[in-house]
Amino acid sequence: MDTPFGEDQPLWTPSEAAIREANISQYTHWLTQEHGLHFEDREALWRWSIERLEDFWASLWSYFDIKASHPYSAVLTDHTMPGAHWFPDARLNYAEHIFRNATSDRPAILFQSERQPLTEISWQELTDQVGALAHSLRTLGVQPGDRVVAYIPNIPQAIVAFLACASIGATWSSCSPDFGISSVTERFQQIEPTVLFAVDGYQYGGKTFDRLPVIKELQEALPTLKKIVVVPYLHADASTEGIHNGVLWSELLREPAELRFEQVPFDHPLWVLYSSGTTGLPKAIVQGQGGILLEHLKSLILDVDLKPGDRFFWFTTTGWMMWNLLVGGLLAQAVVLIYDGSPGYPNMETLWKFAQESQMSFFGTSAGYITSCMKAGVEPGQNYDLSRLRGIGSTGSPLPPEGFHWIHEHVREDLWVASVSGGTDVCSAFVSGSIILPVYAGELQCRSLGANVQAFNEAGQPVIDEMGELVITAPMPSMPLFFWNDPEQQRYRESYFATYPGIWRHGDWIRITERGSAVIYGRSDSTINRMGIRMGSSEIYRIVEGLPEVLDSLIVGVERPHGGYYLPLFVVLRPGIELDDTLKARIKSELRTHVSPHHVPDEILTIPEVPRTLSGKKLEVPVKKLLMGIPLEKAVSLDALSNPQSFQYFLEFEQQRK
């Protein structure tokens, strides 16, 4: 039984002016003028983009005027996954496309933190700093292909350091300073970096955290490091005392230098991202300069509809792929807005106040943040001037219909809401928003151009209006080049291609509607499968967390010996609320009525907090493994959690059950 998430009537419909002025409308007009192609709607354009894959990506190369010192000899030489080879022989540089439209009198970045008021960094300042830093890195011996890592929050220095590395052709990788020492070392040790950028400390939720002791531990754990660059952030007078081969950030910016761009192959490694690492060593995912360049131009200009001068924000840390996508906003000549600190400090209105002060155009966040604002009773539309805001983006987990309605009722009625879903694996979205399409509450508007997204049933066949496995049946340029230290691609193949050889299985449940929109139901590897009836966990969360007493929840389905099945529901309640028989009965009644009688939990229990990854995702699979009797050390890597103490409850719970 599949429970529909969406609604019959659109919540929002674009105006004729919005459709006419949309970037994607300009692109389709260009396709008509230049290639004689005509498309009746966005769905027809998507079909052309997947059926004529090479023509589509070649058109983007021309439309976005990709600057290459050497032309490509073909668009795609092999459709095999993994192994697709895009734009061979082309030589280019990602950072060059960031700076090719730099205008000295315009802001490039607006920055605010818990410790610092709104600050502007102009394009001229950004160009000067990146040029000086790149020159210093070259002087230190950094060459194309060398790995440069950063233990740094979402601050301007992170963007400067990344762009300097990209201009050289060095490979970037970053972790947020809230990562513990084990989480950082198990990521960075894999790629053997030569330079580390690190802050002396940071502030979050009004509390300060010293990181100089961690830097010294990192130096011991990363023997390939030749230089450590200390970025004073917590203390202006931070020093490199006790750090071997340490240098202060300011010293690397002293000597002005012209910004130069190393020309590298299309598939030259741009950065290394990491999987969550909750159940093993994080996968070190390598993505290329050219693939990311094309994918982010497509995603941010044609999907997010960024225009020059727009003020683009996504709340993120440097340990989440959304930071990398956010920096890509500079490709669209947008002003990138970055915020460092807790979104809930001193209260849940902080980011809405930031939106007003920065004159934000697009507000990117997570479904969890929207839900928290709902629970906190925040009234952004009443309390702040959000007249410049055109759209709100949501990712990280499915945004329930109630979240869509809350935005329209409490932020602004005429806002475009773009719920999107993709992954670190491609640093982009598979299913996205489009400003030329209506918005249906609970639905993602469309499949991304060039992404052949299908829902596969149990027989491995594509289906419409049925929940199935989210698969990608054709390559995308930003798919991983490889995993680091995976020379035979064994781990790469096991991660995506073990179920359907040659077809990417992403691990989400999805339903594609007749109108081409989609609904995401949660991770397929944590599916609730009771009496042979599959159910995505997001459907259950929508109902449970819609109750005013419930702040958060977690549900797992545990297979038992001899065909048994155990379905516990764990809830985080509002302060002062008790889980009595009346509330339990209400929760069960709501689930029986709105989801399915087969998915009413066996038990409902209260927990202090839901275990989450460092990027905020619920950890259903590790809890399931623990309740199946798998030892804690094999079920989860606690260092990969934002709240490792949360597992203590489940450990004690399982011991008591035994």
Automatic annotation (TrEMBL):
Residues 544-617 form the AMP-binding enzyme C-terminal domain. The keyword Cell inner membrane does not apply. Residues 102-475 form the AMP-dependent synthetase/ligase domain. The keyword ATP-binding applies. Keywords: ATP-binding, Ligase, Nucleotide-binding. It holds the Pfam family AMP-binding. GO terms for molecular function: acetoacetate-CoA ligase activity; ATP binding. GO terms for biological process: lipid metabolic process. Residues 43-97 form the Acetyl-coenzyme A synthetase N-terminal domain. Belongs to the ATP-dependent AMP-binding enzyme family. NCBIfam families: ac_ac_CoA_syn, PRK03584.1. This is Acetoacetyl-CoA synthetase. It comes from Dictyobacter alpinus.
